[in-house]
Write a structure and sequence with these properties.
α8 (252-269) packs across α13 (389-406) and α10 packs antiparallel against α13. The protein has 3 domains: 1-126, PGBD-like superfamily/PGBD (Muramoyl-pentapeptide Carboxypeptidase, domain 1, Orthogonal Bundle); 145-201, PGBD-like superfamily/PGBD (Muramoyl-pentapeptide Carboxypeptidase, domain 1, Orthogonal Bundle); 217-426, Zn-dependent exopeptidases (Aminopeptidase, 3-Layer(aba) Sandwich), CATH 3.40.630.40. A hairpin with a 2-residue loop joins β2 (246-247) and β3. By secondary structure, it is of the alpha/beta class. It has helices at 11-22, 93-105, 116-125, 145-156, 170-182, 193-201, 211-221, 252-269, 286-296, 330-346, 360-364, 380-387, 389-406, 421-426; strands spanning 231-236, 246-247, 250-251, 273-276, 300-307, 317-324, 327-328, 351-357, 369-376. Helix content is 38%, strand content 11%. It binds zinc ion. Zinc ion binds next to loops.
């Protein structure tokens, strides 16, 4: 898709404006009241259309001109009022601010650019629980805020939904079945009007504690103190034709492939099981990467990247784990913190800290997943580090140490440095 940003113009911009207005990130201006800029929330007849697209929550504010974009009078605000009205199809400063606020609220990268992640989040945000019939479809899973709301309600009543990721998967289906059985309804796993009514009737909020997060930790603890059999999946961030960031003769794809190889060797040496989820010639989507890690039934996935910026001053290392305002992966967060601490203490890289994100790779994996951005190839200092094998070896050691710590209970955790895994494992 074409990225949209400040300064762009066209009907696609008008759609974004309408969506953000609908979601409350932009004020609905009375000046546009005569136009169909903002549609009312869709009507609720969920049983009518099984799985079909819900009625569009946002209408086009302006019809596209014949050749698409650049007619300056394409917008409907042309003759309205005397103040310099914002052109709906113009990506102006207000829209930029609104989009950033939306991105922030969703745990997305706050860059003011409408790319695939943000577009999908906007699409998902339009769905309110009750707008459509929800059920499990392996081919085209329902994704959206309505699914997240359903998961949240089930979860608050103690049903096992895994985590509130907004994706209607098999686990959500079986939680719906459990709920239906519990309430004497036909357990078909479909969330239609009857099930919704029952859910509303029983709505009660459980405060304190997050069972989904606890479950994740319990699974980890169930491993005891043995590191044997722990499966660590590694994802070199790029491959094939996809070079990632290229700058000053360095290429992200190759640097991360080298790091992944070093790291997998170190993990294997230390008694852990380790797999690369793809070869150097494969260029996979985030969804495909997540599927590979899920197939492996890995206990942990680590995705390796470098960063790039138009500013030569941007530098530093950061770690990302699954999470947003609704909650986060407790184990992912802990591992992100551990690995960030180990890297920063072993190198002279700037600490850009850890952050929750809802990126597809983080969200579609069933195991704790952390993405590492190991410095900016566009920064002189970071590029020098990344280009050196010593640095990459140090990062491999840091990730190994953090992985060991993650799978050991806190009382066995030494403050820094490496642990001898086989010895500890033998004691379990
Ligand atoms: Zn990358």
């Amino acid at each position: 898709m074409k990225l949209l940003r400040l300064g762009d113009q066209g009907s696609a911009v008008a759609e974004v404006r309408a969506a953000l207005t609908y979601l409350g990130f932009l004020p609905a201006t009375p000046r546009q009241s005569g136009e169909q800029g903002v549609a009312p929330p869709p009507g609720a007849h969920p049983e009518d259309s099984t799985g079909a697209e819900p009625p569009a929550a946002v209408a086009l504010a302006a019809p596209a001109t014949a050749d698409g974009a650049h007619s300056p009078v394409a917008g409907p605000a042309g003759g309205a009022g005397d103040a310099p009205a914002a052109l709906p199809d113009r990506f102006d400063r207000d829209l930029d601010n609104a989009l950033r606020a939306f991105q922030q609220s969703r745990g997305l990268s706050v860059d003011g650019i409408l790319g695939p992640d943000t577009a999908r989040a906007l699409e998902e945000a339009r769905h309110n629980l009750g707008d459509r019939l929800l059920y499990f479809s392996a081919a085209h899973p329902f994704v959206g805020d309505d699914v997240a709301a359903l998961q949240e309600r089930l979860f608050n009543m103690g049903f096992d939904i895994g985590r509130t990721d907004g994706i209607f998967g098999p686990r959500t289906e079986s939680a719906v079945c459990d709920f239906q059985r519990n309430r004497g309804l036909d357990p078909d796993g479909r969330c239609g009007p009857r099930t919704l009514r029952e859910l509303k009737r029983l709505r009660r909020t459980v405060t304190g504690g997050r069972p989904d997060v606890l479950r994740e930790s319990v699974r980890l603890l169930a491993r005891g103190t043995s590191l044997l059999g722990v499966v660590v999946a590694l994802d070199p961030g790029h491959g094939g034709d996809d070079l990632g960031i290229v700058s000053g003769g360095l290429c992200e794809r190759d640097l991360m492939a080298d790091l992944a190889t070093r790291l997998t060797t170190r993990l294997l040496d230390s008694g852990l099981e380790s797999h690369l989820i793809h070869g150097p010639d494969e260029s996979l989507s985030e969804e495909e990467r997540a599927a590979r890690a899920n197939e492996l039934e890995a206990d942990l996935l680590i995705s390796l990247h470098t960063e790039g910026s138009t500013s030569p001053h941007a530098q530093g290392v950061s770690a990302y784990y699954y999470g947003n305002a609704r909650g986060s992966s407790a184990v992912g967060e802990r591992f992100a913190q551990l690995v960030q601490r180990e890297i920063v203490s072993r190198t002279d890289m700037l600490d850009c800290r850890t952050h929750p994100k809802v990126w597809d790779l983080l969200r579609r994996t069933r195991m704790p997943t952390v993405r590492l951005d190991l410095g900016y190839l566009t920064n002189e200092h970071d590029a020098r580090a990344l280009g050196s094998t010593d640095f990459r070896a140090a990062v491999a050691e840091a990730v190994l140490a953090a992985t060991q710590r993650l799978f050991l209970p806190p009382e066995m955790d030494a403050p820094t440095g490496q642990l001898h895994v086989p010895r500890l494992a033998g004691r379990a």
